[in-house]
Amino acid sequence: MPSCSQTVAGIPVVDFSNADCLKPGTSSWLSARKDVCRALEELGCFMAILPSKVPPELQKTFFGAFDELFNFPVDTPEKPFRAGYITSSPAQKGIGIMNGKNPKETQEFTHHFWPDGNDQFRESVDLYARVMAEIDQAVTRMVFENYGVEKYHDDHFQSTSHSL
């Protein structure tokens, strides 16, 4: 069952290790929903543990590429491109894929940085984006259910885009 009793640096932790946590109506779902809503009400965020959804290899590939991304010559991310590159100072940079769950967008992003391709990065971004969209949909449904407005969930979710 999910538990919100742990914290990391004061941030509540919700453990989604049990596959039933993401199945609406199950006791695990109801328990996770309670923990998610409590964390959001109290702090506005939580840390999700998703071991079966985001295996260590995916985390390593996905997050490992960030060193390379942020170490490209400055002119590479600043070339005209519709994905986001934000820098307000040398100590603060941001790079984003506007619709991360669209494989075409991740392909264009990958090609922008690696003109010869980087399939491992692109595939890990595609998978990570799908997993995050699935978790977002489940958590959003939990919140809508908790407040008795679940009939609005599908319309809301269809109008949502996912940036990475």
UniProtKB/TrEMBL annotation:
<protein>
    <submittedName>
        <fullName>Probable inactive 2-oxoglutarate-dependent dioxygenase AOP2</fullName>
    </submittedName>
</protein>
<dbReference type="InterPro" id="IPR027443">
    <property type="entry name" value="IPNS-like_sf"/>
</dbReference>
<keyword id="KW-0560">Oxidoreductase</keyword>
<keyword id="KW-0223">Dioxygenase</keyword>
<dbReference type="GO" id="GO:0051213">
    <property type="term" value="F:dioxygenase activity"/>
</dbReference>
